[in-house]
Each structure stands twice: as structure tokens, then as C-alpha cells.
Backbone:
């Protein structure tokens, strides 16, 4: 049996997992990233995570059978060279040759993957996409990340930039997106987009429960608060999720026409809104996509939200060595 | 050396090509489809095309080394079973088991491919996309067809419906598309979309040269006529191509963010408008796509417009047998 280590370097936490090639999680460690303490501290935290999942392996044979370490990381990555050029939220992170550092330290090969791609691969391997060949993954968070799985592998495109699935246009002149352009799906349906729409609508709906829940402080609005209000019957909150479902549905209908995937997996905190979001989304997808393209389509929330990134990172190590 | 026959079953013509595995065209035949005469007549015309490219091969060895016949066809296709369920413009075409018919007749395997995918594969193999790995192809005609080449192969999706690239949404409530939904790229930038926009704009621009060229009969408007007027400096015609470039640019920018392809190939008659179309299109793509995703991107017109479908069909036969 072969083993691999997967590391998910997140803005808040580092999740480290030791897995076997059959997809079983052998050991797991979660620790805070403490990115504000800078590059060297984060590299040390990551190394500690790796050591922790290794140290309990009494069986030396396991250690010997580890094919590599996979690391899922945000920012700008060179997969081939093993360099992370930029890491958001970590000061003085500057072209870190991360695979050389850990290869030297642990004596095994190190492979990098983009965090959204890692999460997609993790969900494909042992999560919601298990058993499929072609999968689209949307990570609904502050922004909207994406991952494309084709024939069980991450599709990277010509130079690693493929899968920016949040940046499909829904309109010519919609709200401005973080990428600088108007009308991306991300500008409508990410947490930032949802909060912006909520603030606009609240101006004319002062009676909404959302106001009370944030005690009048609009900076406190989060998707979770909107969900809370919606579950208590607040009409504005319900409308906001309905609109969000519509926007996501428009994007997913395009993705169905383009990819004809077996499954679209939605990950990230927002999927907690569940049927509030999924119902209007499905309605739009059914209306807007080709019937043949969605004949057997599933749209499901992620199954392993906490571990998908690390699991996908471990799978990356398996795929690049075996 | 291995050989394959490629057939492009078009609405107007049937193109049949004999190729070797290195991509050299050995023999070629073009004949009218005469679809109005019905199924059996079309099947006979196709068989005649195949016989014609074969009969001049004095070298019996060539015939012996033919791996198969590939057929690129419009309509609804079952690739695995080798059935064409529907063929637009051919009466009484009803679930024709085309691969069984020709396999029996010629004694070699027969493989089907969708016509837009065939054209994409042909352009990838020996045309504008030669030497690339990942390519997107848009066929600009009455509608907008698409083909996705990943790692040198057509990407089909879960059940063969992938690649409907004309049906990416550009707006929530744009003009109605042939697919029934508002706002698809096809509704803006296909020949039908262009002619619709031209007619609208002509209402307020009675002095346009386009009026004269069609002798006041708006039914005679074609993209070629608009190009003719634009080349003579007609402002309205220039604006129409500029807008078309903008719409295509919006779609292609999304495709760059999604696929990060090495090349986008545009085929079909409309590419004759050339810089009238390509300049505004590139301007929009540069503005709207991620810099990394278009760093080395090429957008080129097809190189083998007449043969792409048949060449891709021959390549299909090679790929499925070798």
C-alpha cells in the first residue's frame, strides 16, 4: 500500500492529512495558520503539521511507502517548479520555493496545486463527486473559486490559469467584480456580492429581520445571518437567496452547456443555505440549459468541506508519482 | 503507414477525404448532399464519395491499411452505438444506424462525430491549432457551434453534449436565442443575430450603403453584404462588426478564464470580415480576461475551412482505432 500526505494551506487553518492510495484517511491534523507572523512561521507550522501526522505512525513501513507531499495553496503557483509566488494574507511571502524546502526536510517529493483545484480533486476522489469522470466544482466564499475535473484529473489549461469559474460573465454592465470587470458571476453570487445586494435592498426594507440580527450595524452582515433571517421567514432574506440561486443557476446552465458534466459540486460556507439556494438554482438551470446536457446532472453540496483541500492535495501527490 | 477516410456530411455538400496518419491528404471528393431527396439518396451520395477517394488508389496496400471511416455529422448522434438520430434538412432520416450500414458495405469500422467537434479536431490536427494541446473552436455560422480540444482529443462530457459554446450567456434578458433562452452569445453574434441587429439599426439609418446593396430588400442581408459595405466605409456596417467583435470578445474572455486555452480558432464564413471583427474582439478579450489566462493566447481564423470537418472525421477514425 502506498501513502501520501496532503496539506491544505488556508488563510485561517492548515489541515494536514495522511492518506492511503485507496482514499482512507490515516491521520489528520488541523492547526491555525497564523499568517500575520510571516513566511518562516507559516513554513514552520506546515512542517509541524506534517510531522504530527507522521509521528503516530508506529509502522515504519508506512513512512517508507509515502510517495510524496501534496500542498494545496492559494495565490500564484508554478506547479512545475514548485514555487508559490504570492500568498495572500502572509506578509513577506516572496517567491517561496516550497517544494525544495520540504523535499530537503522530509526527503520525499513535494507537489503543488492551487487550493480551489485541490478542493475539487478531493471532492471528486472521496467526496460528492466520487465515481464520476467529469466534474465541475464551485467554491462559494468571499469570491467564487473553481476547479475542473476531466477524466479524474484537474484540468490546468495552457499555463495553469484554467478554472476561474467565478469569472464567467452574466451581464455586460453588472456590478464591478474583484477582477476589475463588470458582471462576473462572482460579483453577484459570492459572499461579497450577496452582502452588497443585501445592503442595497435593506435601504428600502428597514423592517427586515436582518437589521435586527446585526443590531443596525450593516458591516456585520454575513451569508449566515441572511440564512438565519430566511429560516425565520424574513421575506427580504428569502429573496436574497432566491436571487443568488438565480445568478448561480445562470452560470451553472452555461457550464452545463459547455462541459456537460456528470456533477457540479458546490463547496464553501454558503451551501449552508441549502434549499433556499438550491431550489431557485435548479429552477434556472432546468430552464436555461440544454435538456441533453443536464439529463443526468447532479448538483450537490460538498461532502468533505473541512478536508477536501488536504485530500485533493494528497491525491495530487499520488497522481504525479504513480 | 496507416490511412483513414473522413466524411463531412454538410447541409449543402459532402466532403470525403482519404488521409494518412501523418496528416497528409491523399485524395479528396466534394459532391452536393441533395438532402431534399431523402435518407437513402444521401446515404448513396456518401458511399459514392467514399468509393471515389478509394478508386484511384492503385496501391492495394493503401486500401488494406485503412483503419476506418470517420463521419462528421450534424444532428443528434450516439457515438458509441454509431447512430444518427436526427439529421437537420434531410427528410425521413430516422435513427439511421449509419456505422452498421457502411461497416457492412466497406468492411472497415465506422466512427461518428458531431460536425462542430470534427471541424475543431481537423483544425487542431493540421490547421490553425496544429502543435497545441488545448484548443477552443467556435464555428460562426447561422448559429454558433463549438468544439473543445483537450490534450489533442475532443472533450465530449458525460453524454456527448459538451461544447455548446454558442450558448454561454452574455446577459440576463438579451435577444431570444434559437435555444429558447434570452442572451446567449449565439443570439448576438451568429449570422442570425447579426442580421437581426442590422435590421433594427437600419430603421434609423436609412442612408446606409447596406440598403443600396440589398436594393431595399432586407431579406437579402447577409454577413458578407455587411462586410462589403464596411470595406467601403459604411459607418453602420463598421459599427455592426465592432459590436459583433465586442460580443464575441465577451464570450471568448469567459472561455479564456475557464479554459486558459493555447488557441481559440474561429471558423465559418463570418471570419471573412477579418480585422473588422478581430480588432474589437481582441480589445474586449484583453480588457475582460485575466492577464495570465491570455498571456500566450492566440485567436486565429481557421486554416482549412473547406476540409476541417472531413479531416477531423478522419482523425476521429485514427484516434478510436490506434
Residues:
Amino acid at each position: 500500500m502506498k501513502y501520501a500526505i496532503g496539506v491544505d494551506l488556508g488563510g485561517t487553518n492548515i489541515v494536514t492529512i495522511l492518506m492511503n492510495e485507496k482514499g482512507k484517511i490515516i491521520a489528520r491534523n488541523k492547526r491555525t495558520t497564523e499568517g500575520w507572523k510571516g513566511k518562516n512561521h507559516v513554513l514552520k507550522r506546515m512542517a509541524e503539521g506534517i510531522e504530527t501526522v507522521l509521528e503516530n505512525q508506529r509502522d515504519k513501513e508506512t513512512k517508507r511507502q509515502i510517495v510524496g507531499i501534496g500542498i494545496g495553496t492559494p495565490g500564484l503557483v508554478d506547479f512545475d517548479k514548485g514555487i508559490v509566488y504570492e500568498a495572500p494574507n502572509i506578509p513577506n511571502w516572496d517567491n517561496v520555493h516550497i517544494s525544495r524546502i520540504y523535499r530537503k526536510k522530509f526527503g520525499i517529493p513535494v507537489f503543488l496545486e492551487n487550493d480551489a483545484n485541490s478542493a475539487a480533486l478531493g471532492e471528486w476522489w472521496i467526496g460528492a463527486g466520487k465515481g464520476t469522470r467529469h466534474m465541475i466544482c464551485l467554491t462559494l466564499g468571499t469570491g467564487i473559486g473553481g476547479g475542473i475535473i476531466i477524466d479524474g484529473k484537474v484540468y490546468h489549461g495552457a499555463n495553469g490559469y484554467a478554472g476561474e469559474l467565478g469569472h464567467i460573465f452574466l451581464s455586460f454592465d453588472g456590478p464591478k467584480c474583484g477582477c476589475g470587470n463588470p458582471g462576473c458571476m462572482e460579483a453577484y453570487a459570492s459572499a461579497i456580492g450577496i452582502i452588497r445586494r443585501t445592503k442595497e435592498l435593506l435601504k428600502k426594507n428597514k423592517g427586515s429581520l436582518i437589521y435586527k440580527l446585526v443590531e443596525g450595524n450593516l458591516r456585520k452582515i454575513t451569508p449566515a445571518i441572511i440564512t438565519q433571517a430566511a429560516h425565520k421567514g424574513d421575506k427580504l432574506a428569502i429573496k436574497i437567496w432566491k436571487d443568488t440561486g438565480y445568478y448561480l443557476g445562470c452560470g451553472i446552465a452555461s457550464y452545463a452547456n459547455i462541459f456537460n458534466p456528470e456533477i457540479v459540486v458546490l463547496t464553501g460556507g454558503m451551501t449552508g443555505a441549502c434549499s433556499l439556494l438550491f431550489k431557485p438554482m435548479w429552477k434556472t438551470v432546468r430552464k436555461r440549459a440544454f435538456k441533453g446536457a443536464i439529463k443526468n446532472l447532479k448538483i450537490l453540496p460538498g461532502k468533505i468541506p473541512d478536508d477536501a483541500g488536504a485530500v485533493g492535495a494528497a491525491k495530487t501527490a499520488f497522481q504525479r508519482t504513480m
